[in-house]
Design brief:
Pathway: Carbohydrate biosynthesis; gluconeogenesis; Carbohydrate degradation; glycolysis; D-glyceraldehyde 3-phosphate from glycerone phosphate: step 1/1. Homotetramer; dimer of dimers. Its EC number is 5.3.1.1. By secondary structure, the protein is α/β, with parallel strands linked by helices. It is built from 10 helices and 8 strands. Strands 1-2-3-4-5-6-7-8 form an 8-stranded parallel beta barrel, surrounded by 7 helices. The longest helix is centred in the C-terminal third of the chain and has 19 residues.
Length: about 230
């Protein structure tokens, strides 16, 4: 994982699975290769294996459970996503909250398996305590802005700057900003505020031309990182 980090969460939209998911993933892969920037796609568990065979993108699960092998019907274990071809997973998304002890256990298991992790949080006060658990990255997303089209980098820039201050206390953990990011300008500003990258979903998955949106995000992310260095 290296900035600029672009993470696209497919969620459970109509184009997050099946042939539509393969089609959009191939378009994202083309952009990733053209710009030389790895892109993470966080996909439904049912699509991990299929997409790992179809594209050379970094594939994440959207969630893993902290339970171990046994009688846990419906659970998705870290071992399962690795076997399917995933390189990591989101944890604690606002739409899939889990307890702190579950985050800790899942992170420990994922590290032992060589899987990457991005822990989602909704306030900068949680950045430092969660960073102490040493995920690869923390994604901060004020829930009221998720899917709103009102970017956190514009509406609440202080959330990013305060989160940056907190994550700096724990070396080796990246900070991603998300919620409402819609344009390349939103991405550029988030990185200029100190984020190492961004997390997006609806801006790509609900776009008429997702390829154009992703390319705009990537180009502005690269420009922002270059200017910051």
């Amino acid at each position: 994982m290296k900035p600029p980090i672009i993470l696209i969460n497919y969620k459970a939209y109509e184009n997050s699975y099946g042939e539509k998911a393969i089609e959009i993933s191939k378009k994202i892969e083309k952009i990733s290769k053209n710009y030389g920037i790895p892109i993470i796609i966080s996909v439904p568990a049912t699509m991990i294996y299929k997409l790992s065979q179809e594209v050379e993108l970094i594939i994440y699960a959207q969630h893993v459970d902290s339970v171990r092998h046994g009688a846990h019907t419906g659970s998705i274990l870290p071992e399962m996503i690795k076997d399917s071809g995933a390189k990591g997973s989101l944890l604690n998304h606002s739409e899939k909250k889990i307890r702190l002890d579950e985050i800790h256990e899942a992170l420990t298991r994922m590290k032992n398996l060589g899987l990457e992790s991005v822990v989602c949080i909704d306030s900068y006060e949680l950045v430092h305590p969660l960073a102490l658990l040493k995920p690869d990255a923390i994604l901060i997303e004020p829930p009221e802005l998720i899917g709103s089209g009102r970017a956190v980098s514009k509406e609440r820039p202080e959330v990013i700057t305060k989160a940056v201050d907190e994550v700096k206390k724990v070396p080796g953990v990246y900070l991603l900003a998300g919620a409402g990011i819609t344009t390349g300008e939103d991405v550029y500003k988030a990185i200029q505020l100190g984020a190492d990258g961004i997390g997006v979903a609806s801006a790509v998955m609900k776009a008429e031309n997702p390829e154009k949106v992703v390319e705009d995000f990537v180009a502005n992310a690269i420009k922002a990182i270059d200017k910051r260095q």
